[in-house]
Amino acid sequence: MTDSIEFADDKRAFANSQQFQDIKTAAHEHLLARIEELGAEFGRWSRGAIQQFVDLEMDGFVRLRRIPINEAELRQISDALTKELAGFGPIEDLLADAAVEDILINGYNDVYVSRRGVLAREALRFSDNQHLLRIVRRILAPIGRRLDESNPMVDARLPDGGRLNVVIEPLAVDGPVVSIRKFRKDPLKPSDLLALGSFNEEIYNLLEAAVRSRCNILVSGGTSSGKTSLLNALASFIPATERVVTVEDTAELSLNHPHVVRLESRQGGFDGSGEVTIRDLIRNSLRMRPDRIIVGEVRGSEVLEMMQAMNTGHEGSMATIHANSPRECLYRLEMLAGFAGFQGSESSLRRQITSALDFIVQIGRLSNGRRRILSITEVTGVSDTVISTQELFRHESVVGPDGEEKDKWVSLGLQPHSPKLQRYKEQSRNAAAALQSQQGNVPPDSGGGGGFFGRRR
Q1: In this predicted structure, what is the pLDDT of residue 3?
Q2: DSSP 188
Q3: pLDDT confidence tier of residue 5, bands split at 50, 70 and 90
Q4: pLDDT tens by residue, 174-221
Q5: Is the residue at 457 inside a domain?
Q6: Where is the composition biased (Gly residues) (predicted)?
Q7: Can you give the residue range of the structural domain that contains 338?
Q8: Which pLDDT tens digit goes with each residue over 80-107?
Q9: How many Cβ atoms are within 10 Å of 343's Cβ, its own excluded?
Q10: How many Å is the Cα radius of gyration of the chain?
Q11: Distance CA 359, CA 373 (A)
């Protein structure tokens, strides 16, 4: 075991050494000269054939130049060059790693990776900024997006569903800045999030009932808090007989539903022409006979169209928004509506928000990287020109006897206010009464109070 750890450490040390970069750069130039001799034939080779070609060329290259490296180091360089010629260079393994959520590159020798919500520096680097740009342009090539001095900022969706953002000079002062957000090939289901501890069984039951009862839900949270994953999971509760239209700036949602229409906004050209905004898409989606509209993220003037859709027969719609608390979420909605040119009074805007929204689900990433639902808040109306809410659940971290931090969700004992959940409230009361009867507290026909949710069968 110790030997294998030392071997892995030696590999990392060599891969990050200047010797590795110098040999790889010289060998890469040699390979490019050989590829030029081969011409178009090289473009038809498989990955395996390229690997074999690199191995043979590297063996001769090292012997002829008398480069002092051992067999393991030669293998490392050959693998790196194969990835360089047939893949995405130093980040190829990270792109293939299912545990990696984000890849953040701040110049050629500063790479950070997020796994399970925890960001850490990665022991890899590019040869220089030109090398980094070459790999980025290779990623962008199939998408048809341009990256140069006249267009120094690109935001694009990758073929596998991930998201790529690149900023280069002159906007990025210290070299190219690359942000890659990866998404799971098999989106998490509500049962997966329950097993991961994102919420408990009572919250599971409430969320399922809210979605099936066509409550309008806004998922609120900070960057990388799990908003999109939760929205994906909630959509699996939508009945299969309904038609769902998703509207996003960059398509990230992957709903587990049989009838989904996906719309994605389009940036304008160099002169600003041809732009199609989220607001345009939501307005158009109303003509597509949707049962529900799901907006990937509300961040601008589209907030007005979203609220109108929720108020005009598209109940059960959902969206995400950047906010640190349910109250801040409501403030942000008001602010965005003001920026969008809302013409009515402040009180009429708040009445429109309360009639559109039923629940705000606040999700966050804890200091240990775990993503948890922090609160579930119901929007109940307007009182004295202030939007009234009631918090049904609140997350608390408790420390067990062993010193380990554990999750706890506190039910505040309040019934949901929305008439859409009348059947659910009755089932909850009956389940609570039956549970108390089993415990010998009250007779089964008393209607019981106290308990809030029944257990999911």
Answers
A1: 54
A2: P
A3: low
A4: 899 999 998 887 888 999 999 999 999 999 999 999 999 999 999 999
A5: no
A6: 446-457
A7: 190-268+275-431
A8: 888 888 888 889 889 888 889 999 999 9
A9: 6
A10: 27
A11: 13
pLDDT tens track for 391-433: 999 999 887 777 778 899 998 888 898 999 998 888 888 877 7
Count of Cβ atoms closer than 10 Å to residue 10 Cβ: 13
Considering only 17-31, 260-274, 439-453, which range has the smallest mean pLDDT?
A: 439-453
Asked which of 87, 115, 142 is the last residue of a domain, the reply is 87
Q: Could you please report the per-residue DSSP string of 386-450?
A: EEEEEEEEEEEEEE-TTS-EEEEEEE--PPP--GGGHHHHHHHHHHHHHHHHHTTSS-TTS---S
Instruction: Of 82, 77, 104, 75, give the one whose Cα is nearest residue 15.
Output: 77
| Average confidence score pLDDT of the chain | 86
The two structure tokens encoding residue 454:
């029944």
CATH value at residue 137: 3.30.450.370
State the residue for tokens 């130093």: 90
What is the value of pTM for the model shown? 0.80
Give the position of tokens 């990937």: 296
**Angle, helices 346-356/302-311, rounded to nearest 10 degrees:** 60
Nearest-angstrom CA–CA distance, 61 and 40: 23
Where among 183, 201, 225 does a domain terminate? 183
Cα–Cα distance for residue pair 400/169, rounded to 1 Å: 50
Task: Please check whether residues 41 and 96 belong to one and the same domain.
Answer: no
Nearest Cα residue to 88 out of 13, 19, 167, 164:
164
Q: CA-to-CA distance for 452 and 432, rounded, in angstroms? A: 6
